Structure formats: C-alpha cells, structure tokens
Amino acid sequence: MEHFWTSGPSDKNKAMVEYLQQYGIIKSKKVAEVMEAIDRGLFVPAGNPPYVDSPMQIGYNATISAPHMHATCLELLKEHLQPGMHALDVGSGTGYLTACFAMMVGPEGRAVGVEHIPELVTSSIENIKKSAAASLLKEGSLSVHVTDGRLGWPELAPYDAIHVGAAAPEIPQPLVEQLKPGGRMVIPVGTLFQDLKVVDKKLDGSINVRSETSVRYVPLTSRAAQLHNY
Ligand code: SAH
C-alpha cells in the first residue's frame, strides 16, 4: 500500500523509470540513472501529470515529449554522451533532455540547448536550476540559448551527439556539418508522417541514415510560423 508520505515527486519519477524499464524502453543502467536523477516533475508545467507517459503542452504551440520518447533518444545517443563529450539539443523546450545530456557528459563536457522561443529558454533555465543539473549550469558546462536551431550552435561544434526535438522537413545541413566524425544525430524528419532518423557520421566523414521508428513531433520551423494562431 502506498502511504502519502512516501509518494513524493521523486518516488513517482522512480516509478516512471521502472515502468519504462519494464517495457524495455530503458535498456541501460546509464539511461535509468540519468532519468532518475533528473526529476521530470520539475520540467512539466503545473497542472499536468508529469509522470504519465504522454506528451504535454508547454505553451507556444510546443510540447514536452513523452517519457518513452526521451528514453528512446537517450538510449540511441548514450554512447555519444560519455564524460567530456559535446552535446547539442535543438528545440530544447523545457530543458529536460538538455539537463540529462549535461549529467551524462559531466563537468568536463558541454551540453548546449538551443530554442527559438525566448520565454521557453527563460523557463527552462529556471527548471534546470531546481534540478540535479543546477551546478553544471552554474559552472558553465550546460547552457541554453535563444536562436534558430536549424543553424545549430557553431561555437561549440563539432558535437558527438545532436538531438533535435522538433520535426524537420529534411535534415538541416548545418547540423550535419556540426556533427563530429564518429558522432550521431537523432532527428525526426517529415511533415504529416515522420520518422525518427538516426544519422551517423563515420570517421571518414560519410553519412549513414536509418529510420528508427514512426513519430509525431511539432515542426522545426520559424518562430512566426510556430506562433501563428497562438
Ligand atoms: N525536447 C523538448 C521538446 C520541445 S517541443 C522537450 O521535451 O521539452 C519542440 C521545441 O522545438 C519547441 O520548444 C519549439 O519552440 C522548438 N523549435 C521549433 N522550431 C525551432 C527552431 N527553428 N529553432 C529552435 N527551436 C525550435
């Protein structure tokens, strides 16, 4: 029986992680540990059930992805999120995955979020400050910037890992250029029908693209197009 004094947010976050492990979505200890450390409840706007396996509205026609999508992307990228590596999170939204990346690459690495809605960048920084990644933000290995993510963030390129949290009609060339040889990008591609693509840049610079699964993300677009009708 669950007692009210043992059912704080962290317990619910742990239960969410256990559920994702049970269904084989979280496969590794590394991903389980980071999703346990970064409490999703700190990133989902008040009034939404944060630990339910579903995307949630975060305002500005954006959503926080469902926990199983975050887990899938972390599993796909985990070898490219080793301590000391560089990671870019395009369309960082709530900052949840940026915080996870920062925990994985550690204080010697760099985790950068880029997002084109300034209000979301501000709230994501507030969320991160409450999370286990707060010290990484303070010390500068984690940062979030307002910019058009289709251009990437050349200052800290090349990246071992690039995650794109919004669906692009096609893979943006600047992001391919900013991927390190040996690095991996995970990006939803398509409009109505979308595939989560895994883009590997081999050591000789050649590119291999495969489809992981069908997905439904908000579009990677201009700020004006996103806020139209908002
Ligand atoms: N990974 C985020 C996903 C947020 S939804 C999370 O789980 O919280 C996708 C995000 O991409 C939105 O916040 C949206 O504002 C942003 N976005 C869309 N087009 C963009 C662009 N061209 N540049 C930067 N961010 C963009």
UniProtKB/TrEMBL annotation:
Domain of life assignment: Eukaryota
Keywords, comma-separated and alphabetical: Methyltransferase, S-adenosyl-L-methionine, Transferase
EC number: 2.1.1.77
Pfam family, one: PCMT
MF annotations from Gene Ontology: protein-L-isoaspartate (D-aspartate) O-methyltransferase activity
GO CC aspect terms: cytoplasm
Top EC class, one word: transferase
Keyword Lipoprotein among UniProt keywords: no
SUPFAM superfamilies, alphabetized: S-adenosyl-L-methionine-dependent methyltransferases
UniProt keyword Transferase, yes or no: yes
Catalytic activity: [protein]-L-isoaspartate + S-adenosyl-L-methionine = [protein]-L-isoaspartate alpha-methyl ester + S-adenosyl-L-homocysteine
An annotated GO BP: methylation
NCBIfam families associated with the record: pimt
Family listed: Belongs to the methyltransferase superfamily. L-isoaspartyl/D-aspartyl protein methyltransferase family.
Name the record gives this protein: protein-L-isoaspartate(D-aspartate) O-methyltransferase
Source organism of the structure: Phoenix dactylifera
Gene assigned in the entry: LOC120111366
